[in-house]
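User: Can you write out an input/output pair for a complex, sequences first and structure second?

Assistant: Here is one pair. Inputs:
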Amino acid sequence: MQEIFNIFVKSIFVDNMVFAYFLGMCSYLAVSKTVNTSVGLGLAVVFVLGITVPVDYLLNDYILKPGALVWLDAGFADVDLSFLSFILFIAIIASMVQLVEMVVEKFSPALYSSLGIFLPLIAVNCAILGGSLFMQEREYQSLAQATSFGLGSGVGWFLAIVGIAAIREKIRYSNVPAPLRGLGITFIITGLMGIAFMSFLGIKL
Amino acid sequence: MSTEKKEREPLFSAKNRKLLTNPLGVDNPITVQVLGICSALAVTAKLKPAFVMSVSVIVVTMLANMLISAMRNGIPQRIRIIVQLVVIASLVILVDQVLKAFVFDVSKQLSVFVGLIITNCIIMGRLEAFAMSNKPWPSLLDGLGNGLGYAWVLIAVGFVRELFGSGTLWGYTVIPETFYDFGYKNNGFMILPPMALIIVGIIIWIQRSRNPELVEEN
């Protein structure tokens, strides 16, 4: 239990998707103009990461990893399908996003209309594929650990995009040098926020 | 685009040259189109991984653009994203296997970021914006141009970060010992992730102050 909570906190603050690994920067920069839309996108990312990482964990554990096919037949002990992981993960992500979209539309039309266009766009958000690839690389031991890593990364991304959106809403009132306006200043602010998040580095949980 | 033209367009016509040179400057994928930042920043702490990453992205954009453009009339509109993802993912698997075979240490350093070329928005963006409506040869040039535009930003950031961060370039020490004797210190801060963002911010600043057309509204 302790371990699972540690992974959760660590993936929010220490290994933050945006500030430590720059994942999901495209939508982070493009959709962070107002707080409302960024909250919507952030929630959608938490949601999708919380689903795709555990599903990809099962896929990796039972099909892809070296020797994972033993449950089918002992003769498959040295089969290594891990080179297929990119294509299978992206397929799972694309179909999960589609599935999530349909489920949300059916059961919660309000949430669906507030997420709007963002839900399908998430399929090509690098934070999602990155979550699955990090899960594979770090070799989490159980489904619960993988799930808490997925949710934690999502929450970290959520915090980052809501934070930058709030700052960008305020920065409209300040006098930024003309060539830095828009994209340039957003990069530099993200860098400064990253420095702030670095204060979590080295925390041992 | 050239239905009424009788003569075959030369391979490097003015228009095609523009496809190659525009993305280097006024239409740069990173600093102007804001595509592909995701994997661009994390690999730039050292010059060598930045270079290997750039080459991989150039190869993938070029080939993906060409392949999708060759198939564009056969791809049903509704499932085009999936088709594109499959093409890109197969190319990335090839690149990944080649990297693992020939430059294993760099491949380890790049870790998940090779896989993340799949979701690199440059590639999807160019496929959607260009390859789906143009012939294979211009598409290939467009992919090459955008790959190069991505590459120079990556290499510039990698150069600055490695030079000031560890005093080396491509792993070789370039800052002479005497500098250190006089009290010069490597700026360890350059190695840390946030500096990559700030350096790209500065590149954008320089580029836009030299070319005021690119300045955005606040």
